[in-house]
């Protein structure tokens, strides 16, 4: 039986722009989500992505991602807007994949979507605020791409073959194609976020240098479930 309050965390959900400086201890919740990902389904049993867990001990990595990769430009302006969530959040799950991807990109994105949906759902259920972001404009600079790959290899100091299979076809036969680089696909930042105090979004600056957005994101225009 569905309790009448089960929907409340979702009704109160918002996309965090800025995470609070003071954070509760979420160690138990993060350990739970990390273990739970072992049981998330993947299509055809082919695992071609992994999740880097950035914690309070990885601030240098988060700062670099914020400054160099996690930004975008608006269609009507050349102004660069950075995503402060990855810098300020205590925890971030960052999905990383082969580049070039060794399976059809649609299939890889579906697998990442399965995992991302579970991470976000469980985090909300456990009382955490979330920031799902998929903008990595800075990555496409060749120097930044090379540096990202280097940082991922350093971060995952163990053999990455443990996490992501070697390039193969569906029959399991090895391909000759080498992994050229790692690519960020999606991230979900978790923690306690500052609730929006306005109904509109606007730009602010960190240290008078880094522009970022404050305020709510545009919501869904309708419940996109069609039924008779």
CATH superfamily: NADH Oxidase
The largest beta-sheet arranges its strands as 1-4-6-5
Shape descriptor reads globular
CATH architecture: 3-Layer(aba) Sandwich
Structural class: alpha+beta
Strand-residue fraction? 15-25%
- End-to-end Cα distance: 23 Å
Radius of gyration: 19 Å
Number of domains: 1
Give me the number of helical elements.
6
State mean pLDDT (0 to 100 scale).
85
Q: What is the percent of helical residues? A: 25-40%
Task: Look up the CATH topology.
Answer: NADH Oxidase
Name the assembly state.
Answer: single chain
Largest sheet: 4 strands, antiparallel
Please give the CATH class.
Alpha Beta
The secondary-structure element order is HHEHEEHEHEHEEE
Keywords:
two-stranded antiparallel sheet, 228 residues, 4-stranded antiparallel sheet, NADH Oxidase, alpha+beta, 6 helices
In words, what does this structure look like?
With 228 residues, this protein is an alpha+beta fold. The strands form 3 sheets. A 4-stranded antiparallel β-sheet has the order 1-4-6-5, with helices on both faces. The chain has helices at 8-11, 27-36, 59-69, 85-88, 105-125, 142-155, and strands at residues 49-54, 71-73, 80-82, 91-99, 129-133, 181-191, 202-206, 210-214.
Brief overview, please?
This protein is α+β, with helices and mostly antiparallel strands and 228 residues long. It has a single domain (8-214), classed as NADH Oxidase (3-Layer(aba) Sandwich).
Secondary-structure topology with pairs:
Layout: H1 8-11, H2 27-36, E1 49-54, H3 59-69, E2 71-73, E3 80-82, H4 85-88, E4 91-99, H5 105-125, E5 129-133, H6 142-155, E6 181-191, E7 202-206, E8 210-214
Antiparallel strand pairs: 1-4, 2-3, 4-6, 5-6, 7-8
